[in-house]
Amino acid sequence: MSEKLIRERNKLLLSVILFLILLIVEKTGILPFLPEHSLWYLPLYLIPYFLSGLSVVKECFLGIKNRRPFDEALLMTVATLGAFLSGEFAEAVAVMVFYQMGELFQSYAVGKSRKSIKELMDIVPELAHIEREDGTVDTVDPDEVEVGDMLLVKPGERVPVDGIVRQGESMVNTAALTGESVPREVFPGEKIISGCINGEGMLRVEALKAFEDSTVSKILELVEEASEKKSKAENFITKFARIYTPIVVYSALALAILPSLGLFLGTKIGLVSPEFFAAHPPLTWLYRACTFLVVSCPCALVISVPLSFFGGIGAASREGVLVKGSNYLELVSKLKVVVSDKTGTLTKGNFAVQEIEPWEGISKEDLLRTAAMAENGSTHPIGLFILSAYKKWMEDSSKANASPEDVVVESDPMKHSSGKESNSLPFPENTENRSGAGLISIVEGCKILVGKAKLLEEEGISVPQQEKGAATICLVAKDGQYLGRILIADEVKESSKEAVSKMKQQGIENVVMLTGDSTPVAEAVGRELNLDSVYGELLPAQKVEKVEEILSSLTEEGEKRNGYLAFIGDGINDAPVLSRADVGIAMGAMGSDAAIEAADVVIMDDDLSRIPTLIAIGKKTMRIAMQNIVFALTVKFLVLILSAVGLANMWAAVFGDVGVTVICIINAMRLIQNPKSI
Question: Of the four, 250, 460, 486, 535, which is 20 to 30 A from 340 by CA?
Fold first, then answer.
């Protein structure tokens, strides 16, 4: 609790104590020296009244001065002054004290809901250690770090900018960024994002981005944007309060004046007896009008609904998901279709040699070595994957006599793009690249072909029919003889299948994959993940067209939407689709800056299982918000009617205002206190 809240709490506590003492003294008469006439208690009651409510009275007159009078401060001030005029001093003070008690509780709840998001501000690194070429180390502000600078990250310090580890090994804490409590191991060649806390090892990190472009800065921008984008429910409450408050004030004024005036005129013309008028004097109607004003205060709605969404955004951030606004949280709760890219989203995006399938009479070793000789010195990704697999096989076989069938490569193939890395292989004397088909290399006088079936057939080599599967297939031939094939594939993420299953449990009716990859590969991944629809070989513009087509199927006659669509992507080519979808979800750890900028939701650790959790948070947030709206309006309108006819007093009005507010806030805080219950 902040110092300001502590001061307000102490002042309010003193007001409550004074109020209770005066109430006991007045009602019991235990101090005989005090006069019995209630007017003597007025100056005494004004002490706790102004002690607790002076700020409200000031705010009321300030609003009148600035020509913006219709707010909660006006309602409370007019209602309590009216109660004083009616001689109900204790009730006037009770209204102000309990109103301020509700405001204090509200401030505490809002502060608590902001805490999880404010904690993100703590991820900002305070300094950076730059190692200069002469060996000296300068400690500077992270803003001064330039791309290419070599940084020293000491144990316990935050990584200042996104970079790649060049020396040292350590465990880094990424909890504030990804929601993952288990530290992640980093080693040379591993990328590391800003805001992580280094463990016990010293790291030398090469800066890949400036501070303003790093993960920390992007997160802070997203958090700032989130508070500016309101949901439909929040916008409804804001507009409702703006119209509702003046109506209530004028209705209370009418309740205070019109019945008294009508009864008075009725007595003059003989329609109302003087006794009836005496039983319902003007002060009675003034008291009812004040009660009407107290219960009509809209703070239960104005506070609890935004608090529900703020709590939802905070709960999502603790799960490693950043939502850019409560409007997107509302849309997430109504999703019917989830469309996803493949590479880097449903799959790891780490292509590698998965299978080596030699033809009859050919060993796996000969097949892999022949392909590697043809690709030696190549910069094509397929060539790099083959060279990487061959180098790993060499290392493994030198240690434990491993065979190529054990090869599964996860390291960066760019490491093996130079001849030095593959110096056990001869270089081709000549290489011819056939666009879209493969390459032909002459190595030690032998003609080696590596590529698609089309290339081999053009050279008069027959290719046996084999199952395609979910992989890029490289066929290999040497001197007119078919040797076999090498399968290069992307690995499906471990979390993808479970995430798809849980999305369907959350009410997602259709999970679709759009990819630029070949249709057979796309269909194989779709079968593995149990997707509803799969579309392959799509260009970025075609992905947008496909999303438009799906969106049109969600629109009924009269443009009424039957559910919403989310798109999950990570690459620059996904940015147009992310912008077009109702909710764009970007993979933050591996995603491109363009994708993260275009998206409405960012998953910080690329774990797809966060999406079903986000949908659950969105649905629970909407349930809580609607519960608060229905409960608050029902109780308030009931007490408003009862107060207008004289069946509800000021104490009932206090419950209708402060009591309802506190109950709604407690309900909204369920998301903040126990997000795991989602």
Answer: 486
Q: Which amino acid is at 401?
A: N
CA angle 283–95–284, rounded 5-degree value: 10
Would you state the pLDDT for residue 557?
56
Topology match between the domains 326-348+492-599 and 354-489: no
Domain boundaries, the chain: 3-117+229-308+621-677, 124-226, 326-348+492-599, 354-489
Please count the residues of the chain. Answer: 678
- The pLDDT, as a whole number, for residue 225 is 55
Residue 414 CB partners (closer than 8 Å, separation 6+): 384
pLDDT given at position 108: 67
The model's confidence at residue 410, banded by pLDDT at 50, 70 and 90, is very low
Kindly list the distances between the CA atom of residue 267 and the CA atoms of 46, 95, 285, in Å, as whole numbers in the listed order: 37, 34, 17
The predicted-structure confidence for 303-312, as pLDDT tens digits, reads as follows: 677 778 877 8
Cβ atoms 385, 413 nearer than 8 A = yes
Rounded alpha-carbon distances, angstroms, from residue 60 to 247, 260, 292: 17, 27, 18
Q: List the CATH code of the domain at 354-489.
A: 3.40.1110.10
| Spatial strand order in the sheet of 128-131 | 137-140, 128-131, 150-153, 203-207, 163-167, 191-192
pTM: 0.64
Domain 326-348+492-599 has CATH 3.40.50.1000: yes
- CA atoms of 182 and 172, how far apart (whole Å): 9
Which CATH number applies to 124-226: 1.10.1760.20, 2.70.150.10, 1.10.10.60, 1.20.1250.20? 2.70.150.10
Distance of CA 218 to the CA centre of its chain: 13
Q: How many C-beta atoms lie closer than 10 Å to residue 109's C-beta?
A: 22
Catalytic sites, residue numbers: 341
